[in-house]
Fold each of these.
Amino acid sequence: MASVTSLASTVDQRIADALSAALPEAGPASPLLRRSDRADFQANGLLALAKQLKGNPRELAARVVTSLPADDVIKEIEVSGPGFLNITITDRAIIETLAARAADARLGVPYEPDPGTTVVDYAQPNVAKEMHVGHLRSAVIGAAMVEILEFTGEKVVRRHHIGDWGTQFGMLIQYLIEHPHELDHKGAATSGEEAMSSLNRLYKASRTLFDSDPEFKARARDRVVHLQAGDKETLALWQRFVDESKIYFYSVFNQLDMEIRDPDIVGESGYNDMLEETCRILEESGVAVRSEGALCVFFDDVKGPDGNKVPLIVKKSNGGYGYAATDLSAIRDRVRNLSATTLLYVVDARQSLHFKMVFETARRAGWLNDEVHAVQLAFGTVLGKDGKPFKTREGETVRLVDLLDEAVERATAVVREKAKDLSEDEIAERGSQVGIGAVKYADLSTSAARDYKFDLDQMVSLNGDTSVYIQYAYARIQSILRKAGDAKPAAHPELDLAPAERALGLHVDQFGEVLAEVASAYEPHKLAAYLYQLASHFTTFYDQCHVLSDDNPAELVENRLFLCDITARTLHQGLALLGIRAPERL
Ligand code: ARG
């Protein structure tokens, strides 16, 4: 496994060296290199430098050009505009760099030099409740971040902070005690659908009783006390709700083609034993104070409409613990027992104030500090086609399973229409890979913070910024490679490249840099954009450069097959990091 230096960083380094040779008085300065339409790269760094040195930027640029030694990477360099450097690199360097990438299983992408441990909190549905599109976002974005971080060498611990604790369980358990056959199936629940429908029924029935019968309400409240005190019988019934819900969760995650492992599910209940201690530490250190009977943390910049400070309540006046106490305990656990250096929370932006207060509290308590920091990767709301939060016509939240079913159905129709030599089974399999991929891609391709419209027609379209377009590019390459027969991909650095070949090659070479940026800024949408551009570059290349033409000399065929192959491998790897399949045939 050898990591490969990208052409961008090779050029950047050479220009930086020439810069300090030509202008020693400038000290170390960045050439500020970027891809450009005019040449392959453009360096803008001399403008700021000229200002600093009070010189003429074009003149300084000319001096840098003169002190740049001739080499086999930079073919041409010229001064343009107010003092930019336009750099063209050799065809040979492009193919040689890609050949080095092709020889490596990781496509030459380097590991982070100084990895840490990130605990990713994502895919956190709630027990006895239906999953909705919000849970989809957390799961999809979180899973992509897990894969991307792991790929860069970060140690990742996954945590599914499911909602499995709280007062509603008193109501549910009490109802089950009084209606013992409600969760019975003929044996265990056989499907997620069945599990969820009995949970739903039970939830509704117990809620109705709770709201209408004061005596039941009192018994339900007592039940919460038993639950929190760890009463055996109560806990056993609670466990049945959790187990039943997990059958449902797993079925949804399975449909989402997402691997969730049982040991990584540590729900709110998992921190129950720490709550008291967490509160004691906060109170004794003075981070939290008593206010109207509750244990609270105050912040100068968090105020209600009346101008009074709104506290984070860690313990209610009735002695109960809430969401905040659990999250604070989870932070202690993740820092102390999991040795986290970063805590990443993939949670709805509507919980941002909660996390802001929780993180600040944890900093005051010393649990977070310069070595350990916490970030919320906050995501926006999923909107319907009308631009309003996604609801059914009856005004209810849309069930995630219904959405996924519909996506797969639409995608299957698209696959069927295009399919030439696919069997029914293959159509069904591709339909689900394309449909689920489309849902994930739509979610990942806009920046997480923004709201987006859930528009299935657009998502499964073959044209435009969709996963289907990328999957088709991949499948087309595989079809070319199959058709090539005895001709095998092989790099030929001695050949001259066509413009579309250069553009494709240079884009492939950027993969590692894009990944590094995506990993450090938690921005998976930039990987999605990169892959879409890569597929577009491939489409242009395929239009302009015949690969398997009889008129082509053998070396040209091999070199073009080589470009096809490394493009396919990059697409495949990139899609895999986003949790999207790349079928070999479509
Ligand atoms: N279960 C919560 C919900 O459905 C999300 C949990 C987020 N994670 C956390 N550590 N608070 O909204």
Amino acid sequence: MLDTSFETTVPLQDIPETAVVQAGLPVYSAKQRKEKIDRIKFLLQKENAVLIAHYYTHETLQRIAEETGGYVSDSLEMARFGSRHNATTLIVAGVRFMGETAKILNPEKRVLMPTLQATCSLDIGCPAKEFSAFCDLHPEHEVVVYANTSAEVKARADWVVTSSIALKVVSHLMDQDKKILWAPDRHLGRYIEKVTGADMISWQGACVVHEEFKARALGDLIAKHPDAGILVHPESPEAVIEAADVVGSTTALIRAAQELPHRSFIVATDNRIFYKMKKAAPDKVFIEAPTAGEGATCKSCAHCPWMAMNGLHNLEAVLESGENEIHVAEEIRNKAYRSTHRMLDFVAN
Ligand code: 13P
Ligand code: SF4
């Protein structure tokens, strides 16, 4: 397991809620923040709940998860942790597909999210009905979908994968001479195709955060920092991926930051990951890959607008009220369980 044990000297309540400010959500004084954090910690115990947060959520939430026996990780490990933990309530701080995945795998547990509005552009861009029609056109293909999809899309799939095991699963299917129908991220699909040589057709979705990384501006930045390592999430455009020293899941990028000899890194993924990168490699320097440059719109500026919707106020509220529970219709859940649990079995074997 990745070792990110490191003590920061900044008290938890003194960290500014930058993401919360960006999302137009309440801002608290240090005293109010401390009260909220204490209350959240108390409620987690009282409700026999565990907090599972993604690396892209605000540092304060990541730290509460760490300090209360919860977990901060990538989408695969969030799913695995939720399945093996004995809490009766899972609080998933991330985006909706992460909460749904937790419910698909753990129907007996209550799954709550700070907000049900936090979605993902890949999920939005792959509606179940259209996707199912696309699959019907290609009945001879094995349907492999990214975890960043709805429960209905997972129910239509043969396999669910995350970025951390997509290459391995596709290579495994290639060994069985399978043709692949991939959805929804076109950049990750292109990357998988290139690395594995798989025979693939792909849905053409994209992540609004990663698609904004600009290859030409990255080239300029590399020229200024010629010794920096380049870490890229595979949802990024092909030309950005080509510049990378390491392409991988969020966990793989944090591990690379720790293990590679470089003293500095240019990082093409959501900038909230810097909290864990700095923990993993406190002496190293992390630089955001550029989202500005030719063709820039900076809709997201290297931070997922939906991940940013998770804050102290709605984490506390959901623990107080028990609202924002994830429900998945049993028929859909059963089908989605098969394709999703397959991923966990594959990792275990
Ligand atoms: P990881 O599974 O690598 O954490 O990726 C999830 C995600 O949404 C990246 O944008
Ligand atoms: Fe979806 Fe992109 Fe946000 Fe990840 S960063 S949750 S892929 S929109």
